[in-house]
Structures are given as C-alpha cells and as structure tokens.
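Final report, results section. Input specification for complex C-07:
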Amino acid sequence: MEGFFIFLVFVVLVFVTTIPYMRRVRRQEREARAAAERGKLHSGGPQAQHPHIDISRCIGCGTCADACPEGDVLGIIAGKAAIINGHKCIGHSLCAEACPVGAIEIVMANPGISADMPQLTEEYETNVPGMFIIGELGGLALIKNAVNQGRDVVDAIARRIAEGAPTPEDASDVCIVGAGPGGISASLRAIEKKLRYVTLEQDELGGTVAKYPRQKLVMTSPVEFPMYGKFKTLEISKESLLDFWNTVFEKSQLAVRTFEKVDDIARGEDGIFTVTTALGSYRARYVILALGRRGTPRKLGVPGEQQPKVMYSLIEADAYTNKNILVVGGGDSAVEAAMGLAHQKGNKVMLSYRKDDFARIKERNAQRIKECTDARLLEVVFNSNPVAIGETSVTLEVNGEQREIANDYVWVFAGGIPPNDFLKKVGIQLGAHDFTREAAAEAAPRL
Ligand SMILES: Cc1cc2nc3c(=O)[nH]c(=O)nc-3n(C[C@H](O)[C@H](O)[C@H](O)COP(=O)(O)OP(=O)(O)OC[C@H]3O[C@@H](n4cnc5c(N)ncnc54)[C@H](O)[C@@H]3O)c2cc1C
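Structure output:
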C-alpha cells in the first residue's frame, strides 16, 4: 500500500513538472516558427555572416539562443536550433562559443545572396592577389571582429614575406587603407611583426567609433589587441575606448597619415602596388583594405535636403534642446538617435520609417523605443516618407496622405552607400564568381 502511495506521488510530481515544461516548449516553438516566418518576410534570410547549425550534432538545448545578445537570431524548432532572424546576426559568435557540442560555426552568406559583398579566402585575400579586405567591408560587423581580422591578416602577410624575397627598398611591406578598429589593429600588428607599413586614413583616427554619439556605451568582447594584449572590458564609453587606444598608439608610436583619402590602387609589372592619394603615391607589396561599409551617407533625394539643418550623423544629442526634430530611418542608428534627442529638454521628436515595423533593430533598442513611445517621449510614424523639407516644416507622406509638421532639424539614417565603385575600380569582384583560394594563390605575385 505504502509502495503504491509513493508511486502515485511520483506520477503526480512527474505530471506537475513536465506538463508546464512541455507547454512552455510548445509555446516557445510556436513563437520561434512565427518569428522565422516574419524574418523571412522582412529579409529573405541571412544576408551576411550567420550561424550554420549542424543539425546532426545539435541537442536542442537552446544555449545558443540564450547566448545571442541580439535576442532572436536563433530559436528552437522541432527540438533543434534554427535560424529565425538571420538578418539580425552581426557576428558576435557567442552562439558558437556557447554550444556545448560544437554544432555551430559562423559562416558568410551565400555570395549569390550578398551580391554586393566581396568573396574572400580564409586569409581575407580578394580575387586581386596580394590585396586583402578586413572588418565590416568584408561583411562582418563589430569591433572585436575587425580587431581579430586586422591582427590575423598581418600574420598571414608576415608569413608570406618571411617565405619570399625581400621587399624592394622603395616599397612598404604593407599599405593599410582605413584607420577604424580593423586598420588600427592591422597597423599595430605590423609594428609588432616589424613590417614596414604605411596607414592612410581619409578622416581622423578611430573610424566609425570616432563618429559614435557622445558617451555612447560601446559593447565589446574580450579581444587580443596588438601591442597591448588581452583587452577584457565588456562595456566602455566611446570616449574611454578612444582614450585607451590613444595610450596604445603613443606607446607603440603608431604612425597614421590622417586626412589622406586613397583614390586608386594599381599593381605594376614588378608585383608592387601603387596606392594613390591626392597628396602622393605609395609603393607597397601588400594592401589591406579596412574601409568599413559606411561610405557616403545615403540621401533621401527630396527637395530642401541640401539645407544645413539636414544631417546624417549625430554626435552630441545634448546640443539640441527645445526643438522640433524629425529622425528618418528604421535601423539601430535612427532609433538610438531619436531616443537620445527625445531625452533632451523640450525636444519634440518624430521618428519616420517607411516600413510598418522595426524588424532589423536590436532587442534592447526595440524594448527601449517601446518604452519611449508608451511614455509619449517621442512619436513613431510607420509607413511614412518625407517628401519635402522646408525651412520651418517638413512634409511627410503617411499611408498615401500628406502631413505637414513643424520642424527645426532633420536627421537621416538611411545607411551608407558602400564603397563598391572603389572596389570595382581596383579590380575586386563582388558577389558570386568563379574564384577559389587556389586560384588566388596561383596568381599571387612571386617576389
Ligand atoms: C551607431 C553604431 C553603433 C555601433 N555600436 C557598436 C558596439 O557597441 N560594439 C561593436 O562591437 N560594434 C559597434 N558598431 C559596429 C562597429 O563600429 C563597426 O563594426 C567597426 O567600426 C568596423 O570597423 P572597420 O575598421 O571595419 O571600419 P570603420 O570603423 O568603418 O573604419 C573604416 C575607416 O576607413 C576609412 N576610409 C574609408 N574609405 C577610405 C579611403 N578611400 N581612403 C582612406 N580611408 C578610408 C574611413 O574614414 C574609416 O575611418 C556600431 C556601429 C554603428 C554605426
């Protein structure tokens, strides 16, 4: 009798614990399937880097989905990990690190899908032998990825140099174009490896990071930073990150030719590249392009856009108070700028986006913008487009109807036009083409 009673308690306990668990798993799966459908609808699937899941190894534990800081890139469908919002992946790689059975690796999208991306070898070499691409220009976002690639590409170049004939006296071993996180890391590694290098930057040092809004909290991951060692900080203000870099630059005597834009690159018959700027030309045996993908800001193309009150980046939100402001765009930059401006005294901020929801933004920003709109700190107008910008007003087309609103400033965050024309000019092919690592190696200059 006592045995039967214990058995009964056991059965009840099993039911009480497993039924809610099964319900939760089913609900999560339903949500994941719905999100996957939405993800496909918005983006057609992953367009750059994304996790590749080996289904035969996946044990469906969900650790990968929990580890992703972007929130809903991965989910569990039919007991296995699945990509539900591939377009939101920006290459943290934490899913791959967290997977207990090593079932995930980060891969680049099929070149047929990312038609405007360069195809690269494992050593980041392009179809132009001796010319490399790193950082966001190669399709992988985030500071840590740019730093890792900058370091690794110089290691690959140093190996080739050690194996080949010496570089001619009048040439550098490597010319690095762009001094954002990728170019900085490559330059510092070149110093560490005792290579002769020249780094050219069209603007100031720091790349996109230098253009972040003031006091922006930068999310980083532990990374091996050349000429410094392990950089372990996970969250740091933009200013503190730039200060840290400056100390490393001073200690390592990093030399960067700032405000010198590279206009052209051509390789001579001797296998040496000539890199041309408005101020001169530089001979180099290898070239690393670390140009980022921001390029020139994309414009709206509407009447009145040429006025100085229309801007394409925001550094100091607190310089604007008591103003009528329109922010245009639906990505993280637009949402962050709108929220930053809405928190300043007396500002009336409207965020206009041409689509019907923010499908591409980080989970954290999605929550914060909802809190802002619920608190009536700012107004979001979906399905809208600015059609004219006047001196003191803007005309918005909302669901086919025109609406005139008072306006002092407009910020446009419609993305950048990536430097694809420049890449084509220097011979780099974009998208799918007949290109193998062996072919690049075969055609590489023999010095
Ligand atoms: C608003 C915003 C917030 C972000 N927040 C984070 C974050 O919190 N954490 C994180 O890890 N990442 C973040 N990112 C992404 C991160 O900033 C980028 O992935 C990173 O800066 C890419 O580094 P990069 O060196 O490849 O390119 P970039 O930083 O874009 O640098 C490229 C450099 O090349 C120069 N250049 C371009 N063309 C030429 C030319 N022809 N001649 C000479 N120089 C040229 C440019 O002037 C620029 O300085 C954020 C991005 C944005 C836009």
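The two ends are 89 Å apart (CA to CA). The chain has three domains: 43-109, 131-295, 298-416. This concludes the modelling results for the funded period.
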